[in-house]
């Protein structure tokens, strides 16, 4: 080491790097390895010199570095990885894959070196990394600020480093130019398994579990054999969970069903074990070498998906070392020497000797309770329950399907229909159906593409990975072939349902499926669920049904090929319109106060419907759907999205020439104007307001014209033309009264009240609002906002009447939150903040100001007419509290969610409960009650 090198002291960040698989790379390249190694060293040293890192040791392909700044160390590693990735190596195979690890600790150099356990910890962090990966400890992550531009740290959780008793939280540096997907870190975790977590209870099978334990203890390969629906996977996972403590090197679950290329079986197993390929060496050789000296259990699930490749991988693993055992599930034996084939039996249907229910009955009871929202079958149904499980021969699949039928049938009705078992339980009588009961929840098992990418270290953006990209395309095509095979096993009704379900964006319930088909969907839906082409997700109120995205895309393509897309998507649009209409109605079919919460779960489906309306359907219906989302878009901070949908629908109109009545066009333009105002596009706001007026006048609808004209003041206010806005409001209100449609000018009333408040005409504003209360209460789409109470609260604040302000504002806030008007709730939070500031609760006021601003920023709302007032009151509150106290309270409020902020506001004490309130004074000297303000008088009158 050069004598003048500076070794940092104090908080030092140590960096270790080496080439993953360097020995194999050297064997592969032969004499070509030395220039690759030299170029690798040159690139790293250039990075170190640029960031002033101290090179302590270089040995072979390894570097040991020290930095006095953690951020500089991470920057050096990032720059080095990018340089290595961008370098033009002789061949793609010659590119060295360098792993890097960082740890920060307190250390002082002695005699030109560090003798500290922190160095060893850094080395272990590097040993946990994979080629191309940068890992750092929690200590480094805390001190590496700021991070390099565009970079972030991905928390990989707690891991036990080899040689250390405690656990270390590891982070991966994520940045442009770096690979992101890697297997799990190479660490010595105390609990080594990846067994999937099950979402349903495991029922029975005590005898079978004991028998499997005996077999696995005596034989190295045990194959659980059975038909689809016999419960092989679930039993294997539950059994393996009991053995985790018996295998020090882990129990590992590998789902072969996700592997669509026979050559990827070894990669799938290796990825689960945290292995990556070595240059010039078959993956199976790397896998066998790793497993040879270890004691582990590997659960290979669904080997019949790739029987030959599974047999080869298992044979090599068992021959490579005596500590590996394999538990396989399949529909056909692997045919290997030493294989013990254990056929899974049906569930017992006879009661146990001690009188307890049989496993089959217990399973049906458990699943029936789940299907019925937690309600157990009635004791009077016991005889029919036993009759059902006997008729089904204790097959788990059949019992699971029977329980699903019990959502809509009694046990007696089901038993009566079991004369035609297949016709009752599934519609695929001629098809052998894969079994939902046979498949466990595979937890975080990755699909084939992810497995191969993680195992091979493919970076699709790197020049050296063209072959891997081609492989990914091939795997995609293979996946399509696999889905096609499953699709071809479907009967006509199930195939049609699969195609038609593709029009839905998310989960659907059974009534929706019935509505879609206009037929009983029980049989075809059962087939799709059984074949895992549709996922059934149980809820307390029943199941919902969901398609995975790849299957939905495949089904959508089939829908178009079948010439059914127009009909199916038009049907979905009609369903969306019906669902939107129902959201505005109560159980009795009468209009109820609009709650935006009712629209939240419909958003995905409505977007899908709008997409079709804008591309292949009716733009007129699309504009109606958009109108149903009018307030939702703005209150959820999505005014821009609303504008974009409207523009697309206008384009569709121009394309098709579809005729739209002037009144519907006027309503769309009016909505567009409001969206533009909410998005800060004030010129567009005025332009579409004018278009709406022209269309409304053409339509000759006085009520529509009043609504449109009532919105004309909004762009004027947004552009600061307050006097003109007030004139327009008064004209609209007078004209609407003359036409007998004064309720349609309610928006103009509210806008005029705001303008009167702004210029201090509080009495007129209060009178106007008092008269508007019954009008607001009569309009379901408006009354949830409680704009009258909000504005009366603002008038009361301006008058200094805290009692009236408190009561009006809390009524408005509670209603707005109860009905999902989040944007308007922010205005009310600001008003309550002012009430607190002037009412002796300044810290609460500052917190509410912070919460309102944070929420409004998240909603991307534009400043309204009260913005200057909020700013003025915040400035006054800051002067009252001082910068430090105000900023601290404001920051606390900004950390609150909207629900938390509303709860804080609703918990503000009523002014009458304050200690100095005169309302509860005792004795003869009590002062006379205060004369009600104009606000209170009009409230009482209203």
TrEMBL record:
Region (Disordered): 425-444, 917-942
GO MF annotation, one: adenylate cyclase activity
Entries under PROSITE patterns matching the protein: GUANYLATE_CYCLASE_2
Signal peptide (residue range): none
Domain of life: Bacteria
One GO BP: intracellular signal transduction
Record-annotated Guanylate cyclase domain positions: 13-126
Protein's name according to its UniProt entry: Guanylate cyclase domain-containing protein
